[in-house]
């Protein structure tokens, strides 16, 4: 194709259309009228010899050619924006931006309240939005700029996704205080639940996709054993509430178990098997590696995790 037929405004229009799937919304995003966006789209179609978008109802559906351009175009615009940014020292106090994180309610409960309060004191112009893990694929969400960071268990991600380990997440077993079956077996808090009893009692499980198995079941399976998962819920807090008011056991991150036990009538026990502890990681798009605000936020998260003591957990339950 002839590059002389393109200018930066056409690239911006293409990026906006790929994001918004609407001529009107794309125009609003980049400050152009609907006729101007339509004219730019016609120029793009001629230059690329492709329809690029096909109307379906009120939306514009991208062709395979347009979809293939989404990431390269977005990356090119980011690089251009970075190249023309003024070379000034980064000052968090002057930053005005919304960061979107994704992860389990483990993080929204334990990390975000102290983290948000800390950031508000030094960067009052920052806002935070936390999305649940169930929203979708991490690589796709990062690619589409729908999230800035994901705080997740080990994942298979695209090669352009950067990550860093946050902490190990050993499991503890929780049960309601006064759980009849544990009491009859003479098991007290802090002790190991006998394997046969562990497998016989009903279990609650945190599952974002409805699956009725997890790390614990994998560990049991290697021993030729199974447990009775009778309740799957999408949030750790829901699991803790179900345990507190029912007959269930649940394997949850030790950090969460200790925090939940402060406000719920639950006891904490040791598992009868070695459950692999996933190393929770922070994920972001590699194009953000050297972006000062993004790098600063990542550093603050790492520091806050350290202050909360998450890195020091070894699976042992204190008094």
Summed up:
This protein has helices spanning 8-20, 23-30, 34-48, 64-83, 105-110, 112-122, 138-143, 180-184, 195-200, 215-221, 236-244, 254-260, 292-308; strands spanning 53-56, 59-62, 97-103, 126-132, 149-152, 161-168, 171-176, 202-206, 228-233, 249-253, 266-269, 279-285. The protein is of the alpha/beta class. Strands 4-3-5-12-6 form a 5-stranded mixed β-sheet. A 3-stranded antiparallel β-sheet has the order 10-7-11. It has a two-stranded antiparallel sheet with strand order 1-2.
Q: Over the alpha carbons, how many angstroms does the gyration radius reach?
A: 25 Å
What kind of oligomer do you see? single chain
Count of all domains: 3
The tally of strands reads 12
CATH structural fold name of the largest domain: D-Maltodextrin-Binding Protein, domain 2
Q: Specify the structural class.
A: alpha/beta
Shape: elongated
H/E series, N to C? HHHEEHEHHEHEEEHHEHEHEHEEH
Query: Roughly how many Å apart are the termini?
Result: 70 Å
Question: Describe it for me?
Answer:
The chain is an alpha/beta fold. It has 3 domains: 3-83, Orthogonal Bundle (Arc Repressor Mutant, subunit A), CATH 1.10.10; 92-168 and 279-312, Periplasmic binding protein-like II (D-Maltodextrin-Binding Protein, domain 2), CATH 3.40.190.10; 171-269, D-Maltodextrin-Binding Protein, domain 2 (3-Layer(aba) Sandwich). Helices cover 41% and strands 21% of the residues. The strands form 4 sheets. Strands 4-3-5-12-6 form a 5-stranded mixed β-sheet. A 3-stranded antiparallel β-sheet has the order 10-7-11. Strands 1-2 form a two-stranded antiparallel ribbon. A hairpin with a 2-residue loop joins strand 1 (53-56) and strand 2 (59-62). The radius of gyration is 25 Å and the shape is elongated. Mean pLDDT is 90; it is low at 315-319.
